[in-house]
Design a protein that fits this description.
CATH architecture of chain B: Alpha-Beta Barrel
Oligomer: heterodimer
Strand order of the largest sheet of chain B: 5-4-3-2-1-9-8-7-6
Order of helices and strands of chain A: EEHHEHEHEHEHHEHEHHEHEHEEHEHHEH
Helix content of chain B: 40-55%
Strand order of the largest sheet of chain A: 3-4-14-9-10-13
Radius of gyration of chain A: 19 Å
Mean pLDDT of chain B: 95
Largest sheet of chain A: 6 strands, mixed
Largest sheet of chain B: 9 strands, parallel
Number of helices of chain B: 12
Distance between the termini of chain A: 56 Å
Shape of chain A: globular
Low-confidence stretches of chain A: none
Helix content of chain A: 40-55%
Number of domains of chain B: 1
Strand content of chain B: 5-15%
Order of helices and strands of chain B: HEHEHHEHHEHEEHEHEHEHH
């Protein structure tokens, strides 16, 4: 049976077996209120016009599609195209979602914004929209991530946000999400929780996808206008999976477009030091939804590793779990070393410093291009720029700046 | 008849209120858990909530987070916990035990296997914090095995939802005293009184109140209108420093005894 991917999730927030609402009772009603408010707004022409205005004049949309001719020529296979989300205000796709959720927050009369962040991109994007709307903003960030993303921490502070270090558990993104959820359950009356990825309880995986889906809608129209055809393959990196679902969603019913998600294979999946939830995990329940998770036989969530803080997450958005099981998308691992090599290749051939997260997608795009004919088109989501990662890369190469 | 139902029926007949201590299984140490359970009963516990440690306890405050981390550092898992409950049941066949935790460890073991092992061990009820009423895949196996599935109610629960929960409630309902995490200091007995009255107007199922109950005074205040009082974080905190199994038992007794006395004094006063 042919699946119509535009029909998901169902009314309970389920993507097939995945998604749903797995939270403590206190949050059930606030989530129902959010679901109702968002259902009203998503079809409201005034809200859509307001969002489109912000995306155009504040974020800088549409982002271009760029044909990486030198890189493609050097690889000698298919043509590599980049959707340039790195050119957005604040330097990544994350702003598409925070602009949208901040408008929802304002319509709901909330005065305080909270967010979790891993690499700091979502924290910066949240602090940015909070500053613009005059809302208080608190960002939870793992103590380990604060150490490796100092520039973004300072950016958030410059934007007036309070950054709270999270010292529980593994002190990374998953623990920041736990702590933000604890804040939300405590301050639910006046606080709006802007989740940064397509995970969490319903309606977040749907709402965050919808706000990022502008990437794929634009890309699809741009491909038809500029190349008179759809791409043969899409590639995006997958941590929680928001930039990936953002690119993929408009193409899910285009059966001839192959779809690849690049997960962080860290030091290699066989070493156990990775964050490839889809490639190496199993179905479970984490952070309010049923999805693939990395856990041990006792059901305890395991520590993950990736050179990129933004992919260092032991779960994944439930829609990706669904796309994996249905076979519509393939999820493959890209190691730290492969991502770094792609980072340098792109810098030297095209003059673009990609984020380490996005470099995983670039690496997978290069691999695919080698296997495909020269007249094929591969569209890679360049989800963020790499300025924030310069220190990490230098340190790895034994330099101190 | 399930031990939980028997226990509440006995308490009601005696005009007493239930004292429900919560401890994290395997904390402060995996050695002496069974002795600790017995010490809780000897000093006045009517029912015990045994926390299943989880790596990502989203609804818990720092005290129970740290207890979970300590237990997990010792590798505590469901198999060991079932073993401890089975050992406890050899000499205590009446005190109900409710396992409280998060869904993922149950899902990974498998709902049916979990339910079967729990029944064999002598568990009586299960409270899964992140498994609400509507998400019932694992829950079906739990109910089918004859275990009581304990639901949480919250200050934010809508009237329609509360009605649905009261309809399904078995064993007891656990009312969360305030919107927040375990161990927070936000308890306001007057606000809770109204909510409990609203729940009791809809169901004859006993109502327990937890979150923020710290000592004899707060327990007695809650017991004026609730059927049961749950004390978790304050107890876990009092056990945390215990250097030996014996010390943990002594700390538990010292913590529970005055609360038991306050509840019984309140009941006698009401009579």
């Amino acid at each position: 049976m042919k699946i119509d991917y535009s029909h998901y999730p169902d009314a309970h927030g389920r993507f097939g077996d995945y998604g749903g609402i797995y939270v403590a009772e206190t949050l059930i009603e606030p989530l129902a209120e959010l679901t109702a408010a968002y259902a009203r707004l998503r079809d409201d022409p005034a809200f859509i016009a307001e969002l489109d205005r912000d995306l155009k004049h504040y974020v800088g949309r549409p982002s271009p599609i760029y044909h990486a001719q030198r890189l493609s020529k050097k690889i000698g296979g298919a043509q590599i195209l980049f959707k340039r989300e790195d050119l957005n205000h604040t330097g990544a796709h994350k702003i598409n979602n925070t602009v949208g959720q901040a408008l929802v927050a304002r319509h709901m009369g909330k005065t305080r914004i909270i967010a979790e962040t891993g690499a700091g991109q979502h924290g910066v994007a949240s602090a940015t929209v909070a500053a613009r709307l005059g809302l208080e903003c608190v960002v939870y960030m793992g103590a380990t991530d604060i150490e490796r993303q100092k520039i973004n921490v300072y950016r958030m502070k410059l934007l007036g946000a309070q950054v709270v270090p999270v010292t529980s558990g593994s002190q990374t993104l998953k623990d920041a999400l736990n702590e933000a959820m604890r804040d939300w359950v405590t301050n639910v009356a006046d606080t709006f929780y802007i989740i940064g990825t397509v995970a969490g309880p319903h309606p977040y995986p749907m709402m965050v996808r919808d706000f990022n889906a502008v990437v794929g809608r634009e890309a699809r129209a741009q491909m038809l206008a500029e190349y008179s055809r759809l791409p043969d393959a899409l590639v995006a990196c997958v941590g929680g999976g928001s930039n990936a679902i953002g690119l993929f969603h408009a193409f899910l019913n285009d059966a001839n477009v192959a779809i690849f998600g690049a997960e962080a294979a860290g030091e290699g999946i066989a070493t156990g030091r990775h964050a490839a939830s889809l490639a190496a995990g199993r179905p479970g329940v984490l952070h309010g939804n049923r999805t693939y998770v990395l856990c041990d036989d006792n059901g305890q969530i395991t520590q993950t590793h990736s050179i990129s803080a933004g992919l260092d997450y032991p779960g994944v958005g439930p829609e990706h779990a669904f796309l994996k099981d249905s076979g519509r998308a393939q999820y493959v691992g890209v190691t730290d070393d492969e991502a770094l090599a792609a980072f340098h290749e792109l810098a030297l051939t095209e003059g673009i410093l990609a984020a380490l997260e996005s470099s995983h997608a670039v690496a997978q795009g290069i691999k695919l291009a080698r296997e495909m004919e020269k007249d094929k088109l591969i569209l890679v989501n360049l989800s963020g720029r790499g300025d924030k990662d310069v220190h990490t890369i230098a340190a790895r190469e034994g330099l101190s700046l | 008849m399930n031990r939980i139902d028997t226990r509440f029926a006995e308490l009601k007949a005696a005009g007493r209120k239930a004292l429900i201590p919560f401890i994290t299984a395997g904390d402060p140490s995996p050695n002496g858990v069974v002795a600790l359970l017995h010490a809780l009963v000897e000093s006045g516990a009517d029912l015990i909530e045994l926390g299943v440690p989880f790596s990502d306890p989203m609804a818990d405050g720092p005290v129970i987070q740290h207890a979970s981390e300590r237990a997990l550092a010792h590798g505590v898992g469901l198999a060991q916990i079932f073993g401890w409950v089975g050992e406890f049941r050899k000499t205590d066949t009446t005190t109900p035990i409710v396992l409280m935790g998060y869904l993922n460890p149950v899902e990974i073991l498998g709902g049916e296997r979990f339910a079967r092992d729990a029944v064999v061990a002598g568990v009586d009820g299960v409270l899964l914090v992140d498994c609400p009423l509507e998400e019932s895949q694992a829950a079906q196996a739990i109910e089918a095995a004859g275990l009581r599935r304990i639901f949480l109610t919250a200050p934010t629960t809508s009237p329609a939802r509360l009605a649905a929960m009261c309809e399904k409630a078995r064993g007891f309902l656990y009312h969360v005293a305030f919107a927040g995490i375990t161990g927070a200091n936000r308890l306001s007995p007057d606000a809770v009184r109204e909510r409990v009255a609203a729940i009791k107007a809809r169901t004859a199922t006993p109502v327990a109140v937890g979150f923020g109950v710290r000592d004899a005074a707060s327990a007695a205040a809650i017991a004026q209108f609730a059927d049961a009082v749950v004390i978790g974080s304050a107890l876990v905190e009092s056990l945390a420093g215990a250097g030996s199994a014996q010390a943990a038992c002594d700390a538990a007794r010292a913590f529970i005894a005055p609360i038991r006395a306050a509840l019984d004094a309140g009941a006698a006063h009401a009579a």
